[in-house]
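Fold it.
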Amino acid sequence: MLVIDTHVHICSEDDVRYPTIESPKRPPGNSGYLSTFEAIAGENQIAGACIVQTLSVYGWDNQYLRDVSKASARHIVGVCSLDPEDSNSPTLLREYVEDWGLRGLRSYPASNGRLDHPGVEELWRHAEALKIVVNVSVSRDNTDDLARMLEKLPNQPVVIDHCLIPRPVSDSAGAVKDMTRLAKYPNAYAKLNFLPVGSVEKYPFRDMHEPCNQIIEAYGPNRCVWGNSFPCPLWSPKSSYAQNLRLFTDELGLSEGAKTCILGETANRLWFGNGLQLN
């Protein structure tokens, strides 16, 4: 089975070449390095990955992501993050896509907290013209804004990171309700990487099983993608990389067809143009 990890954060060992923001949120030890991810990916038979800009280490500076994407284009695609209130961001996005091969934009609300904002919309329209995927990182507070953006750009694929559950929640019903409401938009996709970050329990995070299955039912497996939480010591300290994968191969009770879509087929279509194959 083709498996693609759509949510990987990495950082460089070279702080001189790739300077960090002040007080970066660094993964412990060598857990966040590309070499560490590639070793873990090999152990878990991961065919490809979406490397998402590590905002907590580099802010809006995408140089490291850009370089990794170019050097590892056969099995890695980059998803950059750009300031929606910087007038240079649309030009940078085009450069990253056309010159460096990046295949996605991770979008955040503007400084006023709004996603339905002129700067955000301009970046999304550039993403649509460049035929790349938008990943959106928002909480439930932005559900209405997200719905309006999905309506404005019906041809732009938008992947909802963490399914509106970016942190532990004791009651996930509201997030599931909002995600179900957004499922009516055919261009909306669900990234099912919220189980280890949203659960208040230990592995296998049984409080998140039913919410996850409800979201899969609402979107259909062909509009759902899997992502781990690499580096796990930082973003998923209650579980290992292999355990986060096992949630979908074993724990959730998914059909073989659903696994095929969620673990690789949908991501291959969105970010790799169906060009990634099993070795």
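Strands lie at 4-8, 48-52, 76-81, 104-107, 133-136, 158-160, 188-191, 224-225.
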